[in-house]
Structure formats: C-alpha cells, structure tokens
Design a protein that fits this description.
Strand content: 5-15%
Structural class: alpha+beta
Strand order of the largest sheet: 1-3-2
Amino acid sequence: MVYQVNIIKERFKKYKLYFLNLLFIAMAWSLYFLFFNSFYKEAAFYIDKKAGIVIQLLFLTTYYLDAILVYIALAFILLTIHQLIIVYFFINEQKKLTVNKKVQPIIWLFLFLFIICLIGLMANLIWPLFLLTLVFSSTVVYIIYVATKYIYEDTQNLYENNENIKLEGPFKTKEEAQAYVSEFDCYWKDYFDKKGFSIHSNIELDDSNNYFVYLYTISKNN
C-alpha cells in the first residue's frame, strides 16, 4: 500500500504541470457551464417552442444580448486557453525530445475534454454564435502556433549533419542504454525523417561504470 502511494506521488510530481493544467481547465469549464445552463434555462423558458429556430435565436439575442455576449466572450477565452495548453505541451514535447508515452494519454484527455465542452456549447439555440466563436478562437491559436513554430524552428530546431541532439543517462547496464536508444528511435524516427535526418547513437561507459547515450543526426542528403 505504501509502495503504491509512493508511486502515485512520484508520478504526480513528474506530471504535475499536466495535471494542474487539466484540473484548472476542467474547473473553469465546470463553472462556466454551471452559470450558463442556469441562464439558458431561464431565458429558454420564455421562448415560443413552436417558432422557427431563427425566430427563437432572434428572441434570445434581442432580450438577452448583453448576457449572451458575456458568455460568448468567456467561451472564447476558455476555448483559446484550452487549445493553447494542448499546443504548448505538443511543442514542449518536441523541444525536449522526450520519450514519454505516458504523456500522450494526458494530452488525449485534454482533447477529449475539449470535445465534450464543444458538444456542450453546441447543444443549445445559440450554437451558431458559439460556432463562430470556435472559428475565431481556433484562428487565433493557429496564428500563435505557426508564429511559435516558425521562431522555434529558426532558433532551436535547425539540425545540422552530425549534430549532437541529446545526452541521456546514466544507465546501469548497456542493455538499458540500448533499450532507450531503440525507444527513442521508435518515438522520434518519423519526426526526423520529415526533416531529412536519421538518428544515430553512441553508447559510452564513464569512470563510474555508468553508461551514457549520445544521440546525433546524420543528413540523408549526404
């Protein structure tokens, strides 16, 4: 029991940033929908259900425009923050060249929560306005992503032939070092292939009898 608790503590420390961001965005969306649903139920009570969708939407935007604009603005902020968090973790993983398959399920949780929230935003008469909000939010995030990726690739990610890209270790045995090389190659092979490089490695033993892995790139054009 104590051993399992220690494992949970270690994993939380290791992935604290992911879990805290997930908790923050989940709580933010929960509060948003709590207040929005309360507002929407009250507003929808006065709608003529026999009227067309356009008439119903016009009724809401005529009599509750101020409140709707507030909720649209908040939705824009939350959608943007949510997408930026996902983009940040995606870029951060590439920047550090980590080999961590346990991070992927967490990112999928962010995506799953995002889809659930989108469904919640679309499940009402104001969905056309929320759809436009999503388009604008995604556009802003895409511009930020492209700009960040451009800057990152220009300053950090322009690999050269025979360039050392990562030092990992220590490993107690050569087998552990070789296993890491295989895992790294499997995890990042496609990424470097697209850039025209192959991954090579050297495993060296230091004075303390620990193994270290030196990873470097070789251009496929040479």
